[in-house]
Amino acid sequence: xxxxxxxxxxxxxxxxxxxxxxxxxxxxxxTEYIGPxxxxxxRYKLAGEEGNFIRMNSNSYLSLSNNREVMxxxxxxxxxxxxxxxxxxxxxxxFGHHIGLEKRIADFTAxxxxxxxxxxxxxxxxxxxxxxxxxxxxxxxxLNHNSxxxxxxxxxxxxxxxxxxxxNDLNDLKRCLDQVADGIERVIVIYDxxxxxxxxxxxxDKINAxxxxxxxxxxxxxITVVDDSHGIGAYGQTGRGTPEHCNASPDIIVGTFGKGxxxxxxxxxASEQLVEAVRQKADTYIYTNPLSVADCAxxxxxxxICDSPVxxxxxxxLKERTLRFRGGLxxxxxxxxxxxxxxxxxxxRDTAKTRDLVLALFTxxxxxxxxxxxxxxxxxxxxxxxxxxxxxDADIDYVLEALREVL
Length: 407
Description:
By secondary structure, this protein is of the alpha/beta class. The chain is built from 15 helices and 14 strands. The mean pLDDT is 96.
């Protein structure tokens, strides 16, 4: 048997994606990491390209992925227990490192318990499979991450049991709550903490206030869920994310170790009973091997660093570099979306110009993401810059000068 006919059909599908402007460029391959030197932060080499590149498109906001203590923790765990767990969690694939990380992230998020996953994506899917039912109504922000949207589909949420409110529009959220049908037993309000394409945050305190009068209306209540993958570790006074920034907590926190903490994996933090239900019901937890002990040990060390004076200094430096970059955009007279998060968008509002700017910056050794139609609506095209703690003043000034030249 061959794949000739299937390949032909798939080629037509990809052709259609290309015509719609939705195909991805070939993936660049990083071949070397070059550590900070003199006044400059880290640089990277790419296969087939000359020169070194600064990454302005990395989610590793605290720059802990190359931290020596984090790498040493991963190395020791690997030498003690090997590179893989050898089984799923319920078939003796649970190591002390898994339990240690779950206790550590529960403590960090101020929740009674937590369960770790291979990613925040599988965490969202596992949560939806756990708490969804035919009598559950879901309400989400219109700019929610793909993993939340996909989680609802995997959980089989019907159209009539779903409401979408305009981005951060509290009046529209109230409208969605008012439209929940009779017979619904529980309502889930789910949203991103930081909206990764824009760098703005959900107003958790205000969302909680809107929801408060509805909590007793439904048998199981109104449950709030935040996916704070881009917030935790990099946002708030001590890196505890959007809940800390808003001084308000949702009922359930989904997050990742793969961004602010620079490692790998995701988690759900909530009540002990909900976490036990996840262990019993979440297919994306039950039927796949867990994180390696190296990932767990590295994540615990990253959490420890974030929770230390060193972490506070990293956060301070990250905020200073972010302000420096935002100030530079202001001097250039360029439009952005305000906020203190290290995701800093530069609004271009034109697809062709956005693509040209990405290429022009690439020729100057700068890696940045361009978001164009139809990924974003026409008129909302932008460059997304992501500031990291390892960026220096010289790095920020270099990128701003490059922007001045190419603009």
